[in-house]
Each structure stands twice: as C-alpha cells, then as structure tokens.
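Section: Multi-chain targets

For targets with more than one molecule, the full set of components is provided together so that the structure can be written out for the assembly as a whole rather than chain by chain. Components appear in the order listed by the source. The example entry contains three components.
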Amino acid sequence: MSRRRRVLAWFAARPNASGYALLAPGMIWLLLFFLAPIALMLAYSAMKRGLYGGVEPGFTLEHYRRFFDPLYLDILLRTILWSFVCTVLCLVIGYPVAYVVARAGRWRQWLLFLVVLPFWTSFLVRMFAMIFLLRDSGFINGVLLRVGLIHEPVALLYTPFAVMLGLVYGFLPLMILPIYASLEKLDVALLEAAEVLGATPWARFTRVIFPLSLPGVVAGSLLTFIPALGSFVTSDLLGGAKQVMIGNLIQNQFTVARNWPFGSAAAFVLMGVVLVAVVGYLRRRDAGDFVG
Amino acid sequence: MNRRVPRWVVAAATVVYLFLHAPLVALVVFSFNDSKFSATWTGFTLEWYRRLLERDDILDGLRRSLVVGAIATGVATTFGTLLALALARHRMRGRQAVESLLYLPLVTPEIIVGISLLSLFVLAGIPLGLTSIVIAHIAFCISFVAVVVGARLKGMDEHLEEAAMMLGADEWAAFWKVTVPQLLPGIVAGALLAFTMSFDDYVITSFVSGSGSSTLPVVVYGMVRRNVEPSINAISTIIVVVTSLLIYLADRLQSARLAPAGR
Amino acid sequence: MMNRTTGELARREFVRRVIATGAGLATANLGLVGCGPNVSGGDGEDLGPIEKGLNLYLWSDYLADDTVPNFEKEFGVKVTVDTYESNEEMAAKLMAGASGYDLVLPSSYLFPVLFSKDLLAPLRRKYLTNWGNVAPLFLNPPWDPGNAHSVPWGWGTTGIAYRKDRVKETPDSWAVFFDERYRGKVTMLDDLRDVIGSFLRLRGRSLNTVDPAELAAAKQDALKAKPNLRAFVSAPVKAQLIAGDVWIAQMWSGDARQAIAEQPAIEYLVPKEGGTIFSDALVMPRSAPHPRAAHEFLNYILRPPVAAAIADKTGYGTPNQAALPLTRARVPYPTADELGRLEYQKDLGQGSEQWDRIWTEIKAA
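Its structure, encoded as tokens over all components, is:
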C-alpha cells in the first residue's frame, strides 16, 4: 500500500482525527497568542505594580477596588453611553442605505461596493479625513469663510461633536452591511400583501420590514457598539485629549502611567461589558428571538 | 430602482452616501492642492507625492507593512482555511468551544488584544519587532479568514466530493481536484481581506512593535498627530487607491460562480 | 527628551535614514540579544575595533541633517536611526526588553526607572576625548553621579509660547490659562507632569510634590483652566501656533524655537513662577550590539561644530560650552537666579498613582 493510502486509511479509521488535525494549527495559534495573553492579563490585573512600573508578584485586588470608584466608573459609563448613542445614530442613518441597497436591483452590486469601500479604507485615513474637514484651516471652515457665512473659523475640531462625528463616520459601514444582509432576504411579496391588506407605510415598516431585519439590526448594533467601546484613536485625534474614554484610560496606563496591573483590571472590566453584550446576543439568537 | 422605495428614503440614503465618501474625496482632491496650510484650492501640484518619496520613514513603513502583511496573510489563510474545513466537514466534540475561541477575536476590542499580546511578549522574552507584529497579525486574521471561507463552504455542495470518490478518486484527490477549486475564490477573498486588515492595523501594531519596526499605519499616525503638510493627503490617497483595488478584486472573487450543482 | 509626547513638525528635511546593513537590521529585528561584546566591566576596559553598524533610538527630528551622514563618512559606519513619539513609549519598550539599540536618549527623570532594571551600561570615558567641552552645569547630575552612564545632549525648559501680534499683554504667569479673554485660543501640553506641574509652580510648590493638599489645589486650578483650553496638545500645537489658530500655548523650548524660526511673531518665555528645566542625555543599554561605535558617536557629538548644528536644528540648548558661541540662537545657560525658579522633574515613585488619578480626573471632567 502506498504511503498516501496508509495515511488516508489511518484517518479513515478515526473519523474525528482528521477534523482535529485540521483544527490544530489554527487552534494552537489562537490558544497561544490570543487566549493565553488574555489569561495573562487577567493574572496581571491581580498583581502589584512595581515601583517604577512593571509587574510584581503578589496577589491583590487593589486595582479592581480602585477601578470601582466613581471617577473610573463614570468613565466607563460615559463610554458605554457614547457607544450607545453612536450605535443609535448609525442605525438611524444607516438603515435607509441598507434598505435602498437591498431593493436596488441593477445597481445593487455597485451600491454595495460603495458601502464596502469606506469600510475597508484605513481607519486612520478616515479619521484624518475628519480632521481635514473639521480643523480651523480645514475644508468646512474654508467653505464657510469663502461663502461669507462666518468671519472667523469655527472651532469644530477638539469638541465632543467632533468625537461623535468621528465615531459615527468610522462605524457606519459596520452597521449598514449586516442590515443589508438581512433585508436582502426580504420577500417583496410580503410588502405587497401588506399594502393590499390596507397597511399604511408606517405600519408596513414597523410590522413587516423592521421585524424581518431584526437579526441584521442586532448584529450591526453589536458590531458597532463593541469596537466603539474600545476605541481610543478617535477621541485621541479628534477630541483634543479633553475627553477620556475607557480606551484612552487603558492605553494611558500601559504607556505613560506605566501601571500595567491597573490597566489590565480596567481592560478586564471592559471585556466583561463586551462579553455581557455578546452572550446576551447569542442567548437571544439561539432562543429564536431574532428569527428573520 | 424599485419604485416601491419611498422617495425620501432614497434621498436620505443619498445624503448618507455623500457623508461616507465626501471626506475621502476631499482628502484625495486636496492631495494635489498647491498650498501647505489652507483648504482652499490654489492650484495643482504633485509636490506632496514627490515629498513622499523622500521620506525614508514612509518608505520603510510601507516595506514593513507589505512584508508583515504577506507573511501574516499566508499563514493566517492557511490556518483559517483548515479551521473552516474542519468545522464544516467534520463532527467533533467541543465544537462549541472551538467556535467560541474562533469568534472571540472578532468581538474583542483591539486595545485588549494589543495590551495582552504586549504583556505576553514581554513575559516570554519575545523581542518586540517584526516578529512580534507578524505573530499578532496572524492571530487576529485567522478568525477572519475562517469566517469568510466558512461562508463559502456553506454554499458549496458536499456531494460533489462524494461523487468524485464514488468515481474512484481517494479523499486526497477528491479534495484537491473538486473542493479546492471551488473553494479557491473564497480562500483568495479571505486572503485579500486578511491582508487589508493587516495592512491597515494601527492599534494592535502600536503596542507590539519595537523600534525600527514601524509599519505604515504607525508612521501615518505619527504624521496625523503632528498635523503635517498635505503629504498626509498624498499617502492617504495612495492607501485608499490600493485598498480599493484589493477590495474590488475580493469582491469579484466572492461573487465568482459556484459549481452549478451548488446553490 | 523630556516629557514631550511628540516630536517636531515633520519637515521636508527629515532625518535621512540609511538602511542598516543586513546584519544590523536583522539583529535588531530578530532581537538576537547578546550579539556583540558583552558590555560590562570597568572604565578602562577596551572595547575593541569600531563596529560597522550603529543603531540610534531618538526623538524624531533630533539631529541636524548632516550629523549622521558626516559620521558615517568619517568612520565608515552604517547608522540606523529609529524614532519614537514619546518618552514613555521609549521607556516602555526598553523596560519590555526591546534590544538592539546602541544609543538611546531618555530624559533625566527616567534614569531611576532604567537603573532599577539595570538597563544602562557604564561608559568608557577614555574614548570620550572631547568630554572637556561639557559645561560644568551639566556635570555630575544627581540622577547619574559622575556621568557614569550618560553624555548630556541638550537642555530646555517648559514655558509659554505666544503670538505677540495677537496677545495684548505679555503672558508671564501660568495664570494666563485662566484668562477668559483667550478662551478657546490657549492650549496646554498633553502631559500630566507639565500641566499639573505648572499649576503647582503657580502656587509656589515643587513640581515633584506628592503632598495631597498641594496636588488637590493644583487639580482645582487645572479644572478651572480646562474649559478655557482649546485642547491638550503637544505635537500639533506648533503648526496651530504658526497658523494663528492658537495664540498662547504651553510649549517646550525647542518646539518654540522651531516655531519662531517659521513665524517671527512668536515669542517664548518661562513664567515668573518658574517652570521645568529638563535635559536629555545619551545612554548606552547593556545590550548594545556596537559599543565601540556608540562611544565614537558620543565623542563625535561632543565636537563643538556638531553640537552646535544639533542645537540649531532642535532649538534646544546645548550643554557643550565650546559649542555655544557657534550656535545661532546662543541660548545662554540659566543664571543662578533663573535656576532658582526652574526645577528638574523627578520620578514620582509611589506618588505616581496619585498624580495619575488627578490627571484622569482633569481629563474626564
């Protein structure tokens, strides 16, 4: 029997073995370089900070205790609130686009591509595009000055408005795509039937379209909410360092403040919030709450 | 366009499309603007592109991004494809756990991935440099490829492989001659998308890069923070154009026809 | 490098980098620690011949355009210059074990940190024949007795840069950041030591204090100033000051001088309550792969023309008294009186958590 046949026979006798063999490289990599680091971070969050930074052995919950203090909880809550608002805005703004693309017929391929494109364009480049628009010597102020609506540049950059705009701009495509995927399956016949039965446009939307798109809405919301929670680049570049999101706090602890244990504790709390959201989503999904 | 879509919805969607693209268009247009500071058009120039060529840090960053991207994409695509195949074609115990581990990177905020990897590398004594960056990029690309290839697998007909085996091919030949060709567009699309993610990554890379290993996004971030001249517009334009091409390719490949017996 | 969080405006004349020899780069990237002679031992120990490579890790824009090329030509050494954007980034990387550098440029307050991990190699004075050029003021600093591990590079202050064509009165006090007339036109650095420190100085306190009451007062001041501020910015402010978007900015003296060079309407001063004085020094990590070449470079930058060129480019003062007459700006050394108002930053040790918390409170408000 040739070598090849022998190997195949070995695998054939153990139907699961080939499955595990295929899994192995990827799984091992993820275990080593994704799971293990996070476990390490968990360990660090319960260790002491060295005098000049770094980590020292010794179990302590002081970092968690320190985090559960109005100052830091406030930052976390504010981040959650901002992410929530960003998600809602993205939903409201993005839904029409998803709907139009899903019903688009001939143009669908191109319209979809035009949504996918900004999604894949470098995040930094898109943030810079925002800066370019908003700064005092930027495009918007340039146009307003030229047209004569204002005489001095308006401070658009380094405001909460700029940060929210940047967040929405950054995550909007992430909301549109899943909703589109859901709406694409929408059977237009249902809408026609509803119309025939006398439903108003609003009723058609609330009773037919929206419920059927719910899986996409929820998926899109999750895909927007979670990265928004962890973001720090946007508030860094657009906020003038006057806004602190939990991402900024964590980054700060790992760089300037050189307090890795505290940073890890904060990161874990953030991770906890994320997991709550994800698990909640999975439970509901499996329970059929979002059946399209 | 289906006329059942209300006018105002179309109008709203158009506005949003403009919102999505206008900033980028402005960025690109002004990369050719003959003025250092202001955002009013004063004339056409290729000066900022010329200056890019002088900047060793950008060229080095580009080189590193390409190297990291190529290696990470190669490895991640292989591992990810194998994973997708395993999940789609084989029964196994612990499937739930495997899937959870696979999807976890997709929902973990990048900052957490970055700092945890930094902690690991420091502890394990792995030096921070191209090595650490490649390792990190592979880690976050695997899940991604697995999802894309998995989606493609779902749409494929398993019975074709069985049919081939009934006709005398062994599993090996059936796999390579029947499955892989059908799967290939999905694999390549996954690879292209993985490369794009690696090429664009800033957050994770910023934590695990040592010195002498700044990738392009890290260099660009420095430039953006320092609010430099329109050379940023120029490099941004290049990034946008390259990314567009890659995504266009991936798009074409994704919609490549499956075998007729498929869906 | 002091607690700056970014380097300068990237100018067209950026530091020219030469790709290191494959060996040098591979060593750095693969982190082959211990490649090269082991750098420990006494002052007199011979380091052998000059290696062919040299890896510098510096702030961006911290060399004159010809510094590296001339060195390369004269000594036949291929030099790589890597840059970082913040002191903390560099410290974090070094402490995390990043190796492959021959020379690094930390600020004085990082020395205790670096010593705590025994990261620095003692320097062999015998190779530094130009050592005599260093001004006495910079010899034997408290953070590195006898300059056993460092060669001074530059010094500067943190103060206020302002547009004299936009601002009516000279802003000679840190209290100017409360001034409502300039609301939205003033910025402070995005750095906790500088911001909190300035309000400590305003009330006559040390900017190294860990006294809770003093810090609380400074925090209140900072919170009072915050609504007035356009932003906390370090790097982008130079461009904004030149463009006139910002009128008054807390700035490092080097950045300020570079801004003045581009826009003569800008002036710089240290407020009457005093401020920070900082100095950077070049150090050699223990893991340096090219110690001899490193020493040659150290000696090279101690030459007056080279030091003067660097000072002219960076805008910071030179500690090289022989170079001082050759510099354009001729920034004089602080007088004894001025020194009385200026303080070096020290590492805060256990107190850093307190400072960090206050900074978070200020930022989150």
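The CA atoms of residues 70 and 331 of chain C lie 25 Å apart.
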